[in-house]
Amino acid sequence: MLFTQLFFWGFFVLVLGIYSAVYKFNRLRTLYLLAVSLFFYFKTSGVFVVLLLFTICSDYTWGFLIHRSKKNWARKLFLSFSIILNLSLLCYFKYAYFFAESYNQITGGDYTFLNHFAQFSNTFFGTEFSVDKLLLPVGVSFFTFQSLSYTIDMYRRKITPVKTLFDYGFFVSFFPHLVAGPIVKAHDFINQIYEPYKLTKQEFGMALFWIINGFSKKIIADYMAVNFIDRIFDTPNLFSGIETVLGIFAYSLQIYMDFSGYTDIAIALALILGFRLKTNFNSPYKATSVSDFWKRWHISLSSWLQEYLYIPLGGNRTGTIGSYIAILIISAFLILLSGKVFLIYALLMLAALTLLIALIFKKVRKGINTNINLMVTMLLGGLWHGSSWLFIIWGGLNGIGLIIHKQWKKISPFKGAEHWSVKFLLMLITLTFISFTRLFFRSSSLDVVNAIFERIGSHFGADLFLQIIMGYKNVMLLMLLGYIIHWLPEKTKTAYRHWFASQSFLVMGILIVTAVFVMYQLMSGEMQPFIYFQF
Questions:
Q1: Are 379 and 390 in contact, with CB atoms under 8 Å apart?
Q2: Which of 179, 263, 414, 449 gives a 20 to 30 Å CA spacing to 535?
Q3: Which sequence positions are flagged as catalytic?
């Protein structure tokens, strides 16, 4: 089910119709929304709903055992079971095929991958899945991280157990944010399950605004992708350097509008149902540094990684045993990605050299200790997106950017500068850096990345600028409009949002119908899946 499909909105209207009879009764409301959410996931991912149910039952049990246990060793043991089970399932679906291919490449073997879940489904449910290919369940990364937050929060004594398995199932599977976020942490959401329903007229108006805002973002993102961006990244050799540069900046806008558009709608749907989800994007291209950007982009994942990975590893204080275990895991991925055994020796030599330099030079040792967790977090964040050199390079570049910014802050001549021109300059520098790192995120291979850089370096074609602008005038106009709206002062945005939400239902209805009509004029064939469905 896509938020941009008419079928979904018919489904949601039906859900609301029945919800109007049960929303005042918390227990009944929870059971009803749980059933709706499981149906939604079944329609989205089919038999993989079994995996979702397993995650729910497993972590509900581990959470209960952690809470009941008085011995600290027992609490750690049950938490370890939860983490290992969740990450094992996540790694299986995201990396099993990759591991099998890497094993054959390194050993020269001919191991045939067998998808055990497909075999199970074919046997017991009569499906016809291919057993030699692996499908990634939609949203598995999101609901796995969300479920892990419950057992970790329970271990930290930040929450108490939910009252029933059904309550926990609802927390994990709540359909608005189930398949692409925002990731909801247990201590931010569970208490809402037991609160009475409340929704003001202003909140309802705001929810309608976010729905139409998210829908508009998605339509524009798809239009730019189909008519310009996808062509650049599919066949970069056919375009000039200036076209590829414009395509890079257009992709930055596309991925923001696509992903934030989904979360706008998700937050709005949850609000209509009486639940408040946290903001997932805060005008990220207004960021004046890489650090600022990651506080504004995909906030639910960034904050999850900070709270459950970066800080436990030692934060910016020092490296820990966990930091070096994470480095070993990342190194293993690098070896498997390369398919070359000699990389083991190369990495060992690099580690020995780094250790020797750190022992001799105190400043180097201090720098490694205070920055190691930052780099580990960004590299693991890259691997979270997929098993590819491209994602690792993307994560590594952002890690390097964060480390350089930490050092730059100490000597920056712009420290404390409030003039708009300085902020605008820093904002453009940050946007340029982030956009060019996304070359590795969007490209299908390193060959594509190399081809794009080659076109920029050798066939820039600055003299074609006006011709290109006119040739893609609709795309360029939408890109310019998108960035201008994005850069509007927050006061301006807040003002027109509240203005919309304060109008009568008749006026809001007219504005919504008008916006939908205009947006559908931009639709190009079938709606594209949301980009983050693949993660």
A1: no
A2: 449
A3: 385
Model confidence, pTM: 0.88
- Model pLDDT for residues 403-414, shown as the tens digit of each residue: 888 888 888 777
Question: How far, CA to CA in Å, does 186 sit from each of 54, 150, 152, 160, 295?
Answer: 18, 5, 9, 10, 20
pLDDT at 535: 66
Give me the residue label for tokens 């909105």.
Answer: 9
Under DSSP, is residue 488 helix (H, G, I), strand (E, B) or coil? Answer: coil
pLDDT in tens, 449-471: 899 999 888 888 888 888 889 88
Which tens digit of pLDDT belongs to each residue from 499-512?
999 999 999 999 99
> Residue-wise over 151-174: b if at least 16 C-beta within 10 A, else e?
bbbbbeeebebbeeebbbbbbbbb
* Rounded Cα distance, 167 and 68, in Å: 18
Contacts of residue 405, defined as CB under 8 A and 6 or more positions apart, other chains included, come to 289, 290, 291
DSSP 167-190: HHHHHHH-GGGTTT-----HHHHH
